[in-house]
Amino acid sequence: MQPDFLVDFPGLGIHDLPVNRVAFELFGRWPVYWYGLLIAFALVLCLLLAMR
Fold first, then answer.
1. What is the pTM of this model?
2. Residue 29 sits in which domain range?
3. Structural domains counted in the chain
4. How far, in Å, CA of 16 to CA of 7, rounded?
């Protein structure tokens, strides 16, 4: 499987880091994208902070 993007962090010395858009697939059928995971994490974090 070819990566969708090659990401560089030159200040950290990281070059051509392969990144796929899909983080994983649920039941081998539904793709879960990285941006979806980040949005879900941010929402949960906001809810936890709001309930404090």
1. 0.67
2. 5-50
3. 1
4. 5
